[in-house]
Amino acid sequence: MKLWGGRFTKGTDSLVEDFHSSISFDKRLYREDIRGSIAHARMLGKTGIITKEESEKIIAGLQEILEDIEAGRVRFSKSAEDIHMNIETILTEKIGDAAKKLHTARSRNDQVALDVRMYLKNECCGVIELLIKLERILLKKASENVETIMPGYTHLQKAQPITLAHHLLAYVEMFWRDMDRLRDCYKRINVMPLGAGALAGTTFPIDRNMVAEELGFQEITNNSLDTVSDRDFIIEFNGAAATIMMHLSRFCEELILWSTNEFNFVEMDDAYSTGSSIMPQKKNPDVAELIRGKTGRVYGNLISILTVMKSLPLAYNKDMQEDKEALFDTVDTLKGCLLTFAPMIETMKINKESMAEGAKGGFTNATDVADYLAAKGTPFREAHRIVGELVLYSINNSKNLEELTLEEYKNFSSVFEEDIYDTISIESCVKRRNVPGGPAPEAVKEALELASARLQQVEDWLENNLDK
Prior knowledge:
The chain folds into three domains: 5-104, Fumarase/aspartase (N-terminal domain) (Fumarase C, Chain B, domain 1); 109-148 and 163-348 and 447-465, Fumarase C, Chain A, domain 2 (Up-down Bundle), CATH 1.20.200; 366-424, Ribonucleotide Reductase Protein R1, domain 1 (Orthogonal Bundle), CATH 1.10.40.30. The chain has 19 helices and six strands. It has helices spanning 14-20, 23-26, 30-46, 52-70, 83-95, 108-143, 164-189, 208-215, 224-229, 232-258, 286-309, 323-347, 352-360, 366-375, 380-396, 406-410, 420-424, 426-431, 441-465; strands spanning 149-154, 157-163, 191-192, 219-220, 266-267, 349-350. Strands 1-2 form a two-stranded antiparallel ribbon. Strands 3-4 form a two-stranded parallel sheet. Strands 5-6 form a two-stranded antiparallel ribbon. A hairpin with a 2-residue loop joins strand 1 and strand 2. Helix 11 runs antiparallel to helix 12. The two termini are 37 Å apart. The model has no long low-confidence stretch (mean pLDDT 94).
């Protein structure tokens, strides 16, 4: 008979048994479920709700079950429905009637909320740890390429010269915000739900703060209805994960473009590339493409949980069982992508000559010509028009701006002097953009120091929160 079967006169249909059961996927919560049950049993014993002997017997049995699961000696049963009832059933077989007192003053509704919060606290830290490793690789690559000039783009058209370090630091900023989002999300996950019961708390004199302290939660939830109804912490995590995947996808798109023969800016290491079954010359950036593709999967998981929750009345509804598979898939997909992406970046070859050559085409120094005129008193809008005409003239005469003679320059404005050539050299265009956040080597070095200091702050935070 089911643990909840007292009110029923017949068993569950076999089709419903399969449809209803969640043990196939929520079994991965066994550590959290057992840790939560141990803390609950200890609290029940301390408050006198059950005897100290019963509490100790339950705790010892749960610890044995954990060892058995870790050793592969446990087979979960679909008929027991979920991880909570599987463990309680196994515990009853192991220690007898004392196990039947474990569920006093709690419900599966607050129990599952506890398990998922404990799971997500750990996974938040795990994702942040992977992002830190990626950031370290990006900072190292950037420090090695402070003066590696490349074209910057808008609309995928060459715009202005920058450095590879500056480009990489753009992603350092994105991933920094991702870590900050996860740390902020962690604060809202780090709230202990046990004690809310099914929806209205309990009549027993439980000590919720004791359980929270033992399990490493910062605080307890304030409203029992909200506690068992709430899944916005899962939505928030999925949203943060989707944003990380978006950043990875953008980066991968650029790497895919840069790997083409037309760009030839980078070459992926053989270990992170694949070939063609028919074309022997091919070296495909499949890892980057697959990460780009998996982004849609994580987006889908976010939409899934949003849709599940969009019209549910308070409090718990069975619909909410659908929160876990999408969450687990998001965690697995995100971590798998980060684990693969970081060494792919670390091992890729950078073709500095191709990048520098690319920066010379496309009139990337045109804005500097306009700035030159503006600095000499020409209104910027007038300067913009003059340089536009200069660019058109250069295109019609198959020249770049560096190849124009001073006489040609003066045909467009008498303001031009010999110093225009120093102004528009690609190296000068980059070095003179020495403002905070700019691509000049000096500005980039300052940005590297700032990023390293911020990363140390995250590492300190991680050390204080890991496994708590």
